[in-house]
Amino acid sequence: MPRLRRYRVFLIFAFIVIALLYHVSKNTQWERFQMAEHGTTGAHSHHKPKPETGHDSSHSHDAAGPDHQVDKPRPAPPKPNLPPPKQHTTTAPASAETSIKIPKLKSTDEAHKGAYGLPKPATTKSRKPPFVDGAFETPSVPIKKPGHGTGHHDDEKPLGETLYADWPPKQTDTSPAATPSAIHWRKPYEYYPIPEEKLIMLPTGRPKSIPKVQFDFSPESPAAKEKRQARLIKIKAEAKKAWTGYRTYAWGHDEVRPVSKGPHDPFCGWAATLVDALDTLWIMGMKKEFEEALEAVKEIDFSTTPYRNDIPVFETIIRYLGGLVGAYDVSGEKYKVLLDKAEELAEILMSVFDTPNRMPVLYYQWRPQDNEVPKRASASSGVAELGSMGMEFTRLAQLTGKNKYYDAIARITDALEELQTREGGTAIPGVFPQNLDASGCNQTAAAERRREREEEARLREEEERRVDEEIRRREEEEDRAAAAAPGHQHRDAEGLKTEGLAFEVRGEDGSAAHGGLAKRFEMSAFRPSPPGMMDDDCIPQPLKAPGYGSDSYSMGGSQDSAYEYFPKQYVLLGGLEPKYRSMHLKTVEGVKNYLLFRPQAKGDPDVLFSAKAFSPDGTDKALTYEYEVTHLTCFLGGMFGLGGKIFDKPEDVEIGKRLAAGCAWAYEVMPTGIMPEYAQILPCDSAVHCHFNETQWGLKVDPYMTDRERQMEEYEKNMAKWREDVVEAKRKNALAEAEEKRRAEEEERAKEEESRRPMNATTPETSPSHAGHDLKEKDNVPVGTLLERRGVIQEGDARGEYRGAAKAAEEKARSVEGALDFNAVPPRNEVWQRPLGQSFIPPEPVKPLTHKEYLDSQKLYPGFTTITDRRYILRPEAIESVWYMYRITGDPIWQDRGWKMWQAVIRATQTEIGHSAIFDVTTNEKHPAETDSMESFWLAETLKYFYLLFEEPDVISLDEWVLNTEAHPFRRPK
Ligand SMILES: *[C@@H]1O[C@H](CO)[C@@H](O)[C@H](O)[C@H]1NC(C)=O
Ligand SMILES: *[C@@H]1O[C@H](CO)[C@@H](O)[C@H](O)[C@H]1NC(C)=O
Ligand SMILES: *[C@@H]1O[C@H](CO)[C@@H](O)[C@H](O)[C@H]1NC(C)=O
User: Fold this and answer.
1) HSE-CB of 645 using CA atoms within 13 angstroms
2) Where are the catalytic residues (predicted)?
3) How many angstroms does the Cα of residue 547 sit away from the middle of ligand 1?
4) Can you tell me which atom of ligand 3 is nearest the CA of 756?
5) What phi and psi values does residue 810 have, to the nearest 5 degrees?
6) Where would I find the beta strands (DSSP E) of 99-245?
7) Does the pLDDT of residue 10 top 70, yes or no?
């Protein structure tokens, strides 16, 4: 019994232990489960919206994670091609898409309801809404490592909960609004906010007096007025046509296809043409159309787009934001919806500035799953895109009184100014390279640091090895000591050690052992991370030129409007921010010293263009040039004109005139009367003594010019030999032909003979086919004939006939005419039938072009060396500068130039429903081939400038208005 009792005790004890263990393990599971639940508050949201991503497959190359492929994306509902409703009601059919909107940004109450009207989960009630009017919310959660995309959860207040408070929509809510058909933008957590007190404020005070821009026009004569108004009517009619085409075939879409009459949505599908054209409609007095468009503007939902994963920030700002603000301004600040919409859009775009250095992200991944992570500006940011946000945000700040909009762009200006002033910051003083590193991280220094860390890690490893070695040595020593004093302890220690637990049981040596472990952990924390991932991998730096081998400097695309905005910002801020003046003057100095050139062309036009310079080494020591003539660069005349007036630099106005005249000239000399998109021209050595040297031009266009004479001589030689060869071949062929003819006749005769025989044959039973072969009579041709066709043809008595035919053929072949008569060459299908021995006619040597023929084939106006892109895509820059020059100088020559351009453009581009970009301005065809594209700037800019050129000078006077780079007029401070 005592034995059993002992066992019972043991059993009870064992049971308790097992029960406890079970409990513990259950708890751990529970805890794990809890943690998982907890942790996914954020991650959950990353996953949930995925089935909703709904981007259509044509955009699948966009930044879609691998998970996107798992959930077959529902095709995005393309915007219905709605005909413009006859009677607009403010409440449009509330589709799921339109009824879900970003909040009005007005009351915090509304925001509390959650974005898009969705009920907020109860747990977040006490929290401040992420979307607050006015200043941004300062984060209450300190984020330790903003460099990590996922690892930023905080135990007390998981970041995900703040970020995704109302996403995904509660499953319990079954109302249609709760299951949105599209993903919507959500205001993300702001990682790098600017505290209210540190915002850069709009300059205040009385606007400075700025010299007058416009010419002092005197009253015009009745005849001049009549002519002008007749032109105005024509221009308005074309604008009306283009608008009607858009209204009829692409209402609510970005663009109309002017030939195929369909919609096209390259700019997120927020009705780019509609928004872009608003102020044009107003200026041209198309009030009815304006009001109708206004109703459509109300329905635009900037918080979603089925067309793109990224919002192109620059285009969105100049077209949409500029369009809304400009329309609000020109319509006398009466239509509040325009300003509201502008702010709605701006609120979304403000997130692009949430980077460590506040430089904007230029292609904004707006979908929540991409948007909720910390961002950094690109290491290759286009200068134009970076520098052309100023006017739109400045005007918005002025109209709303919210300094955050001004702050956002003032920091870019400051960064550009710093780079412009920095010694050696750019290769050409005052001018920026095409792309800048705006990431704010010094890659060179980061690489250096990585190398240092690797070295450090190596040293640590060495040190660790040394420590391990030391441990082993001591262990051995200890073992030896233990062996000297025998006992249980020795065995125990020995046994444990074999199980790998030696460190734990070691007595006095513990410190050394733990030191080794500690070192191991410390080292792993120092493992270098992939470049640019961790924040401490970013060694801050200001804006930077990319440097070695990649810097190009020009006033053309990707750079243009950054410079354009310096003088315009100065004007818009009433001259109260002197930075813009000094930045403009520096730029102009750089352009004059490095880029301007006079072209060398037929007729010696006294005009100027701006070249593109390349710096191989980040300095101006070894610049190379491309003497380009590009449509985009044509804005420069207007910029020099405006800057020259407001900063009182008459020389700049003169340069502006010659720049504007250059583009007008480039229009004039093309066969269609329109300048190409991109070309190159021969430069003059001197701007003063400049005469077109045709030889020099010919050499440039045709580097083989001198080789061509030798080629021609060679060709003549080859040609003579070829003629002989042809004569010989033809003679041979004629003989063979005669032989063939004779042979054919033989055959014919034999056939006839043959055919007679079987017809006379007695019965089919005796025919050879029936005897041995399976052949049957076919088309009444006796089988015997079929078998004999390839048999030996007997000599016939046709010698005389043969001789005659051969002689005639030979004679013909001998004559040169015959040799060159390609009809005399036998058609190809006959060749294979010829007997062996037939000669082929050798191919004629290709005649090389003469220098003149080559030049003609290039379709270049003498002076132009290449035309890389022969399109005209309805761009405005040339007429823009012509308009500036007219308003600045008052010289009617600009109106005449503009009218010529107008006639050419309309002739070449008009379609049934609007106007289309064309492929080739150098064609002589009456109707150049169309590209079927009518970008929104056609109505926003090109037609507006043409119209304003013939409108009274006080309509959009440059002394009252300043136009953004998309021709949207903003009111200047009085
Ligand atoms: C980047 O770091 C390198 C090396 O530390 C330094 O020489 C260079 O001046 C830095 N560049 C900028 C723009 O700060
Ligand atoms: C034209 O250019 C060629 C080639 O550069 C040169 O040889 C010739 O002298 C030039 N002619 C004139 C009139 O300058
Ligand atoms: C049959 O052959 C004889 C000579 O053998 C000829 O006269 C006659 O015309 C032939 N008949 C036919 C149908 O060809």
Assistant:
1) 22
2) 315, 560, 677, 877
3) 12
4) 14
5) -60, -45
6) none
7) no
